[in-house]
Amino acid sequence: MKKTTIKISLSVLAAGILTACGSAQPSAEVKKGLDIWPKIHSEVGKDPEIERQVAALLSKMTLEQKVAQMIQPEIRDITVEDMRRYGFGSYLNGGGAFPGNNKHASVKDWVDLAEAMYQASVDDSLDGINIPTMWGTDAVHGHNNVIGATLFPHNIGLGAANNPELIEKIAQATAKEVMATGIDWVFAPTVATVRDDRWGRTYEGYSEDPEIVKAYAAAIVHGLQGHADGDFLGDDRVISTVKHFLGDGGTVKGDDQGNNIDSEQMLFDIHAQGYVGGLTAGAQSVMASFNSWQGEKIHGHHYLLTEVLKNKMGFDGFVVGDWNGHGQIPGCRNDDCPQAVNAGLDVYMVPTDAWKPLLENTIAQVKAGFIPQSRIDDAVTRILRVKFRAGLFDKPSPAKRPHANNRQLIGHEAHREIARQAVRESLVLLKNNHQLLPLAPNQRILVAGDAADNIGKQSGGWTITWQGTNNQNSDFPGGQSIYDGIAQQVQLAGGEVELSENGQFVTKPDVAIVVFGEEPYAEGHGDRETLIYQHGNKRDLALLKSLKAQGIPVVSVFISGRAMWVNPELNASDAFVAAWLPGSQGEAVADVLLRNAKGEIQHDFSGRLSFSWPAHPSKPVNRYDEDYAPLLPYGFGLSYGDPSILSNTLSEKVDTALSSSDVYALFNGKAQQPWQMRLFSGEQNLPVSASSMALEGLSYRTIDKDIQEDAFRVDWQGPKAGVQFVSGNGFREDLARYQAVGGVLSMTVKRGDGVADKAIIGMHCESEGDVPGSCRAQVDISTELQGLAAQQWQVLSIDLQCFASKGVQFDQMVMPFELYATGSMSLSFSDISIMPAGDKQATVHCQD
Question: Has 35 been annotated as catalytic?
Answer without folding.
Answer: no
